[in-house]
Amino acid sequence: MLGPDRVLVPGNRWDLLPPAPDPTVTVVITHFEQPAQLARVLAALEGWDVVVADDGSAAPPQVPRGVRLVRQPDLGFRAAAARNLGASVATGQVLVFLDADIVPEPGFVPALVRHAAASPDVLAVGRRRHADLCGGGRGLPPPAWLGEGVAETHDLLEADGRSFRFVISAVLACRRELFDDLGGFDERFVGYGGEDWDLAFRAWNNGALLVHEPGAVAVHDGPDWAARDGDPARKDAESARLAALVPEPLTRGVPMPALLPDVLVDVTSYDVRCVHALLAQDHRDLQVRVQAADEVHRGQVRTEPWTADQERRARVRVRLDQPDALAPGVLSAAVRRVTDGPGRLVLTVGGEPVGAVTSTRALGRARRWPDVADVVERCFGTASLEVAILERRQDLAGFLAAAGQDGVTRGTSYDVVSAGPVRGGG
Fold first, then answer.
1. Is the pLDDT of residue 422 over 50?
2. Which of 36, 60, 86, 389 is found 20 to 30 A from 119 (Cα to Cα)?
3. Are residues 144 and 113 located together in one domain of the fold?
4. How many other C-beta atoms lie within 10 A of the C-beta of residue 329?
5. How far, in Å, CA of 344 to CA of 209, rounded?
6. How far apart, in whole angstroms, are the C-alpha atoms of residue 90 and residue 49?
7. What count of other Cβ atoms lies within 10 Å of the Cβ of residue 127?
8. What number of other Cβ atoms are within 10 A of residue 268's Cβ?
């Protein structure tokens, strides 16, 4: 513990967070042509610091004294940009995001922010009910998949790399420093849907604690939007946006490493055989970066630094300090290990370190704390992995000829000379 609002816990164990002093809070409400609904929400939030972010309504919405209004032009459905605009003028330590058709019940805000008050790593989502508020308040069924997901993960306490799907931006809260660290909502999302899952993926991928707060209840005026929208083309467009930006395998479907790869590999000592073996790994959603590439790999690897977008979105970082050629399957095994278990694997050959594989989740949480190595160890654990490498059996010309015949994966150009079990960690 570093202070009443700086508590470090392992994994996703938000249940270990102690009570903390009440933080300052700003509620950001996204609005477009919903004056009656907005009035209900503002009445329910009387006494709280509120910013209304208008997404291009024809006329400015009327807001009470003390409520700040920010507006952007109508360039389509741009909820992500509107939320970022609202957040840009917010002053609270914790940001709460609501939509104009979501009416919070009494006690909603304190319940939603209580865990974020204790840790800068929390991304909290409330419980959204549905009712016809314009027709007498008749209750409507919530989406079954959302309730099932929250229940199966015990309010996200047992979240995994796919649980970002159970986080919805209509009832969301996080500390300002986490929001800024993630870069806010991605404004490439234009049109309904996807921007909340994208933010939640980046949050999880960068070490956030995903929390479902069942006591933070808000009522959505009408049925779930996804259930109302029966246009398959629109849903396909949302899925395509997510596939392009979220490299999680079941979201992406096939490797698409050109812009936003799943794995970033840094090779500190360039060797043709080493890079060839990396490009032949069965985990194909990767990019390789070297200090300088010769003509063999020019255009196939990069030499410039990774972008911030790549670093936030790739699930795994790999560093190779020795020019060994890894055997096929080494990276896929290591990726599975660090995304499901310890946050860092030290790769060894004959007991000697040759590199490391680290989850972006571990690195992301550590980035928000003073000591990176200590946070990775305390929150996620470390282990070592004795890896298989390929023995050189011929000169480079022979290697390239064999590789051209798929020799690396068949083992005709190399023999496996080292392999062993994972040691330590868990």
1. no
2. 86
3. yes
4. 14
5. 18
6. 9
7. 22
8. 13
How many independent structural domains does the chain possess? 2
Report whether 20 contacts 117 (CB < 8 A).
yes
Same domain, residue pair 241 and 313: no
Q: What is the mean pLDDT of residues 11-39?
A: 95
Question: What is the C-alpha separation between 377 and 365, in angstroms, rounded?
Answer: 11
Please report the pLDDT score of residue 229 as a whole number.
55
Whether 253 is covered by a domain: the verdict is no
pLDDT, residue 418, reads 47
- Domain-embedded: residue 400: yes
Q: How far is CA 250 from CA 165, 193, 219, 220, 393, in A?
A: 12, 18, 31, 29, 38
Give the separation between CA 377 and CA 284, rounded to whole angstroms: 28
Amino acid found at 292: A
Per residue in 104-143, pLDDT tens? Answer: 999 999 999 999 999 999 999 999 987 767 766 667 767 7
Cα 314 from Cα 310, distance rounded (Å): 6
Residue 14 predicted with pLDDT over 70: yes
Q: What percent of the chain has pLDDT over 70?
A: 88
CA 360 to chain centre: 9
Contact yes or no for 53/86 (Cβ under 8 A) = yes
Find the CATH number of the domain harbouring 342: 3.90.550
- The pLDDT assigned to 424 comes to 46
Can you read off the two tokens belonging to residue 48?
A: 């709280």
Separation CA 200–CA 123 (nearest Å): 8
pTM score of the predicted model: 0.90
Q: Computed over its alpha carbons, how large is the radius of gyration of the chain?
A: 24
Domain that holds residue 45: 14-246
H runs (alpha helix) in 48-164? 79-88, 108-113, 144-152
Do 383 and 342 form a contact (C-beta atoms < 8 A)?
A: yes
Provide the residue count of the chain: 426
Q: What does residue 398 show for φ and ψ, rounded to 5 degrees?
A: -65, -40
Torsion angles phi and psi, residue 38, rounded to 5:
-60, -40
Asked if 221 and 289 sit in the same domain, the reply is no
Residue 209 forms part of a structural domain: yes
Between these two residues, 373 and 20, which has the higher pLDDT value?
Answer: 20
Q: Do the domain assignments include residue 208?
A: yes
